[in-house]
Amino acid sequence: MLQRSKLLFIVGLILLGSSLLANLLFLSKDQQLLSSAPHVQPAPYFEEELVEGDDSQEKRIAKIDLFGVIAQEIPGQIGSSMVDDLILQIRQAADDNSIAAILLHIDSPGGEVTASDNLYHELTLVR
User: Fold this and answer.
1) CB of 102 within 8 A of CB of 126?
2) Staple 111 to which of 5, 8, 42, 70, CB 3.0 to 4.6 Å?
3) Is residue 46 assigned to a domain?
């Protein structure tokens, strides 16, 4: 009886070890597949609207609208917050060589100090 229980214990350990080894092999293979997969982050794209003049003008003014409370907690359409969306718009305008100036149209009762400071900081980088 004691021999049989030892034998069952040893067989159980062997099966458990085999299962653990198989799982580790599958896990490492999955990690290799994930690490070799390309990670693509889509670039933000914002629509362009011609307000005045015509398309043939060399230099343009980017008008970015900010309506409502300025806060990191308000979800964005592209970024994680509305502030991130505005920063992405500012950066896109700054990267466009045909943009001569950025006009930030603000209709806001105010908002978070940090969120407003983040926008201010981004605008000072564009100058």
Assistant:
1) yes
2) 70
3) no
